[in-house]
Each structure stands twice: as C-alpha cells, then as structure tokens.
C-alpha cells in the first residue's frame, strides 16, 4: 500500500524586482534583478490511500503549487514526491491514467468543444483513455446521476451557466475513474446549491471507489464539508496537520460580527467591540447570536450587520500561538 509520500519538498519561483520611478523602469530594461520566492517551503507529509483530505490556506499560501507538484505539472527543486511509487513530474502513462487535477477553471471541454455538447467531448476522452464502451456508459451514468447533470450533457457548452459548466467539466476530468483526485478550489464562484451538489459528489466518489481526494479551499466555512483530516498551508509551510474536529474545537463556538453605522460616534454597548470609523467588529458566542441581533436591530443608526466565521488569518495566528 503506497499512497502519497512527500519529503522535505521545496519549490521556488523567481520574481522580478521593480524599482520605482522612471529611472528604475529604464534601468530594468538593461539589467533585471530577481528575488527568489519559496512557494513550497520544506513540506513533509504522508497521505494514505482512500483518504479525503482538506487543504486550507489563504490566497498565495502555496495550495495550487502543491496540487501542480502532486499531479506532475511542476517539478520541485528539492525534496521528493512519490505516489504509488511514481515520481509525478516524470509523467509516466501508468501514473497519468490514475490521477486528475481539476482547477474549476477552463479545462478540456472549454478548449476542445466550446460550441458542442459535453457528451461529444466525453466520447473523445473515451478514445483517449481507451475505455471500453460498456464501462464508459456505466461511468457516465454514475457521474451524471450524482451531479444531477442529465440534461446538461446534451446542451452546447457555451449555453451552460458557471455552475452547470463546472459539473460537466468535472465529469470530463474524472471519466477515467482516477484513484488520485486533486481538486483545487473546485467550488469557487458557485452558488450554495451547486456547492452542496459538488461536496456530496466528492464524498460519494471517495466512499464508493476508495479513491484519494485532496481538496483545497481558502474558505474556513468549507471545513464542515472536508474530510476528517485537514492540512493548513501558510507561506508554503504546513502549519497544521490533524483532525478536523480538533481544529474546530480551537476555532470554538464564536462568530464574527461586523456592524456598519450611520455615524462613527454612535455608541455600541457591547464588550470587546473594536471600532474603526463607522465600522464596529466583535466576537459573539454562536448561542447568543440571535439575542445579539435582536438587540442591535432595535438601535438607531445601524446600516448593516454581517455575521461570518472567524477569519482564516486569525485561525492561523491562533495555531501559531497554540503550537508554539
């Protein structure tokens, strides 16, 4: 039983240093200077076959880079990745037939058959992967039913909405029944109903096929939908690797409340309120939210109230404090 093994992994990018002003711009035409950025900074971890792992981190944390390293799109300057004994960036046929990378952005169907229905693209993929017709029909029926895409596969791709297009693109990326599925923010930009359909699909696919799924997100609210194990990535480092329930207990039962006031001098009689001009922010226990809203909506000068989960940045700070 192999699974995913990552040891002391580093990935660097070069970024051009740009100096301000006309003089700096002219100088850069003749002599360019670069700085080195660590996108992945010494990651070591193991993921067993059949796990469904959540990868959470703010934008720029290295999530997409890690996904591309796992799928072989990028190579690492230092360290080692092995998936079932294969080195991803060598891109061997036996390896590629068992993985998929889905980014939620333009992929195979959008490029190949924009004016045609998805079913035509699936037939092309059947030939590319060498899938027997009977097996192909069974798989397509499995995906179409789970994703509620019965009517979508017959419509021209260009006529589908973003949520609909995401579903049919997902089918295309998984028609070969991959055993390793890398999903880079697959629900971004989708409405709540479409997100739930995708989360249910991922869980079912993991449960019924035993495939390994790694799903990234920069939304802490997605924690409820992710697998038992969660990784938090920040500045290229894994700062948390453990059970989802343990992380949720750290987050606690608090919500963040942001209040927009008509005037900055309107008093807010609640402890812990942080004021900046006409905006007031504070933490409230979940069980007290309704009582708090009832009180605040009865006050004069309230323009808007927003209730959210704790910011990911705060959770990251708390992890650093708890882990030392």
UniProtKB/TrEMBL annotation:
Q: Molecular function terms in GO for this entry?
A: ATP binding; ATP hydrolysis activity
Report which residue ranges the record marks as coiled coil.
none
Question: Which Pfam family, any one of them, does this sequence belong to?
Answer: ABC_tran
Matching SUPFAM superfamilies: P-loop containing nucleoside triphosphate hydrolases
Listed A to Z, the keywords are: ATP-binding, Nucleotide-binding, Transport
Keyword set includes Nucleus = no
Query: Which InterPro entries does the protein's record reference?
Result: AAA+_ATPase, ABC_transporter-like_ATP-bd, ABC_transporter-like_CS, ABC_transporter_ATP-binding, P-loop_NTPase
Residue intervals of the ABC transporter domain: 4-260
User: Does this entry carry the keyword Transport?
Assistant: yes
> What domain of life is recorded for the organism?
Bacteria
PROSITE patterns annotated for this entry? ABC_TRANSPORTER_1 (PS00211), ABC_TRANSPORTER_2 (PS50893)
Protein name listed in UniProt? ATP-binding cassette domain-containing protein
| Species of the source | candidate division WOR-3 bacterium
């Amino acid at each position: 039983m192999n699974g995913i093994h990552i040891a002391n992994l580093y990935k660097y990018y070069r970024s051009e240093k740009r100096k301000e002003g006309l003089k700096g711009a002219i100088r850069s035409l003749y002599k360019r200077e670069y700085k080195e950025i660590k996108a992945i900074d010494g990651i070591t971890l193991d993921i067993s076959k059949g796990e469904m792992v959540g990868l959470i981190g703010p934008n720029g944390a290295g999530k997409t880079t890690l996904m591309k390293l796992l799928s072989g799109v990028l190579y690492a300057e230092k360290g080692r990745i092995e998936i079932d004994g294969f080195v991803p960036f060598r891109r061997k046929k036996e390896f590629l037939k068992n993985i998929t990378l889905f980014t939620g952005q333009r992929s195979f169907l959008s490029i190949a058959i924009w004016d045609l229905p998805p079913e035509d693209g699936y037939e092309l993929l059947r030939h590319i992967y060498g899938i027997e017709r009977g097996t192909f029909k069974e798989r397509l029926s499995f995906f179409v039913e789970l994703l509620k895409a019965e009517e979508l596969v017959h419509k021209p791709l260009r006529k589908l909405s973003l949520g609909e297009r995401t579903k049919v693109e997902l089918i295309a990326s998984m028609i070969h029944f991959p055993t390793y599925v890398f999903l880079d923010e697959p629900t971004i930009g989708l409405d709540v109903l479409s997100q739930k359909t995708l989360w249910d699909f991922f869980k079912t696919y993991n449960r019924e096929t035993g495939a390994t799924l790694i799903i990234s997100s920069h939304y802490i609210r997605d924690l409820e939908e992710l697998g038992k194990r969660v990784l938090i990535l920040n500045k290229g480092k894994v700062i948390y690797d453990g059970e989802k329930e343990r992380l949720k207990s750290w987050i606690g039962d608090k919500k963040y409340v942001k209040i927009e006031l008509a005037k900055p001098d309107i008093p807010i009689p609640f402890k812990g309120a942080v004021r900046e001009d006409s905006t007031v922010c504070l933490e409230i226990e979940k069980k007290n939210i309704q009582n708090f809203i009832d009180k605040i909506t009865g006050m004069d000068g309230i323009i808007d109230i927003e209730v959210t989960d704790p910011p990911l940045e705060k959770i990251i700070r708390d992890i650093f404090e708890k882990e030392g």
